[in-house]
Amino acid sequence: MPGMPWPLPWPFDTTYMQLALIAGVAVGASAPLIGTFLVQKRLSLIGDGIGHVAVAGVGAGLLFGTSPVWTALVVAVVAALALEWLRSRARSSGDLALALFFYGGIAAGVVLAGRSTTNANLQPYLFGSILTVTENDAYTVVGLGALIVLAIAVTWRAMVAISLDEEAARVAGIPVGALNALLAALTAVTVAAAMRVTGVLLIAALMVLPVATGRVVARSFRATTVGAAAVGVVAVVLGLAAARQWALAAGGAIVLATLALFVVASLAAPLRRASAPDDASSLLSGPG
Amino acid sequence: MRTPRADPVLTVEGASFAFGAHRVLDGVSMEISPGEFTALVGPNGAGKSTLLRIVLGLLAPQAGRVELFGSPPRRLRDRWRLGYVPQRPRLAPDLPATVEEVVGAGRLAKTGWWRRPRPEDRAAVAHALESVALGDLRHQRVTELSGGQQQRVLIAKALASEPQLLILDEPIAGVDAQAQRLFRDSLVHLLREHGASVLLVSHELGAVADDLDRVVVLRHRVLFDGKPADLAATGVSLGVHADDLPRWLEELSENGGG
C-alpha cells in the first residue's frame, strides 16, 4: 500500500490508522457473515472456543519463530474440523469434549509461548493490537477476509437451506456434512484474520454481536446478513475513532461499539413497530 | 390378470428395522404408482416415521429393499423428484427469513445449490406460493405467520422443485378447517395438474378422505393395503381415529370378517 497516508479525514489521517482501518474493515465485514450461520445453528460461542485453541498455534509460532497468524490458522482449522466431526456424531456428550479442546489449546499456547526465547508475548494476540499492524499483516487480513466473502457468496443458498432445516437439506441432496465442515473451517479462518484486530478472546463478539443487531432491524436472511456486515464495519470505524480520541485499547473499543449499536437498534425497534396498530393496541388493552 | 402399470415411483419390499431389541418395522412392503394418492396411517409408535426416514434415505433398512424412482434412496441423483414436508414446522422462533426465502430453498434440488436461480426458478417459487395462497405474504417474516400458514409455507417449499413424489409427515395435525381445505386444494392441484404422486402420513384423513386412491394401515407390519372403499367394506371407517384402526382390523381378522 505505497503512498500512504491517503488524504483521509481525522482519525484516519495517519499511516498506522489507515492500516488499522483496512484490516478492521476486512474483519468487520467478513466475521458477521460467518456469525449469521453460527447464531442460527446455536453455535454462537464456537468462535470463542476456536479462539482458545488458536492460542496453541500462536504459542507454536512464537516458539519456532514463524508467523503466529499462519500457525494459528493451521491449528484453528484442524481443531474446528475436529469439533465439527464431534458435533455431528456425539450430540449431547460433545460439551465435555469441547471443554477439553478449548482449555487444552489455551494451556498449550501459554506453555509454548513461555518456552520461546524471543521477547514476543501472547498479549497482542489475546487482546489484539490493530494499531500496530504492518502492511503485510493488513494484506493477510484482507486476503483471509476476501476468502470468507467468496466462500459464503458461492455457498450462500445451500448454507441458508441448511440453516432453515438440516434434515430437509439432506433430503434435497445438499452436501450438508461437507458444508458444515466448510463453515467450521471458515470460522477458524475468521479467528486467524481477526486475531490482530480484536484478539482471540474477543473475536466471537465481532462474529455474533453484529448479527444480533441485524436480526433486530431486518426481515430477511439476506438483509440480516448484509446488515450485520454493515454493523461490523461501522463498529470498527467508531471503535478506532474512539480508541484514537481517548487512547483506548482498540480491540475492546470496537467490541463495545458493536454492543452500543445493538442497544441503539433494540431501543429504536419498538418505535419503528409503533406504526403497526396491532402490537400497540394489544399492549394497551391487556386481557379481559 | 393385472394390466401392466408404469414403473412405481416407490417400492418397499420386506423392509425391517429394529432399535436394539425393539422391532419397529417387520417385513413391510408397499408400492406407489405414478399419480397415486396414498395415505399411510397408524397409531403413534407404529413405525410410520421410521419407514418415512428409510424412504427419504435418512436411515438404511436393516433388511429388505427400498427404491425411489428405481434407485436406492441414498443414491437417487435427481433429488428434485422427491418433495418432503416435515412433521411440524421446525422453524426456529427467531428465524430471520422471509416466506420467499424459505420456499426458495426448496428449489435448490432442481437448480443445483451452487447455481444462481434462473427466471424459471423464480417462476416456480412464485407458482408454489400461489398454489398455497401465500403469494401476498411472500415478503413477510415466516415466524410472524400462524401455525397453519407456516405449514403451507413448508408445503410450498416442497412443491417448489416440482416433485414427482410428495411425502408429507402429519401435515394437518393441529391445523384449522380453512387451512385444511387450502391444503387439500393444493394437493389435488399437484395430483391433477402435474400428475405427481402423494404419500401422506397422517392421523387424520378427514379433509382428504374422498380424494385418496389408497390407504396403507401400518403397525410394525402392513395390516391393510387397498382402496378406501375396500377398507370401508371391511366395516372400518376412515373416520375412525388412526390409533384405533389397527385394533379394528385385527379384531375383524380374528373374527374371520373382512
Order of helices and strands of chain A: HHHHHHHHHHHH
The mean pLDDT of chain A is 88
The oligomeric status of these chains comes to heterodimer
For the secondary structure, the number of strands of chain B is: 9
Descriptive notes:
- The complex is a heterodimer of chains A (288) and B (258).
- By secondary structure, chain A is mostly helical.
- Helices cover 78% and strands 0% of the residues of chain A.
- Chain A contains 12 helices and no strands.
- Chain A has helices at 15-40, 46-64, 68-90, 94-115, 123-127, 135-164, 166-171, 176-194, 203-217, 221-246, 250-273, 277-285.
- In chain A, helix 1 packs antiparallel against helix 8 (176-194), helix 1 (15-40) crosses helix 9 and helix 2 (46-64) packs antiparallel against helix 3 (68-90).
- Residues 277-288 of chain A have low confidence and may be disordered.
- Chain B is an alpha/beta fold and 258 residues long.
- Helices cover 31% and strands 22% of the residues of chain B.
- Chain B contains 8 helices and 9 strands.
- A 6-stranded mixed β-sheet of chain B has the order 5-6-7-3-8-9, sandwiched between helices.
- In chain B, strand 1 (10-19) and strand 2 form a beta hairpin.
- In chain B, helix 4 packs antiparallel against helix 5 and helix 5 runs parallel beside helix 6.
- At the A-B interface, helix 6, helix 7 and helix 10 of A face helix 2 of B.
Q: What tags apply to this protein structure?
A:
heterodimer; A: 288 residues; mainly alpha; 0% strand; globular; disordered C terminus; B: 258 residues; alpha/beta; 6-stranded mixed sheet; 3-stranded antiparallel sheet; 22% strand
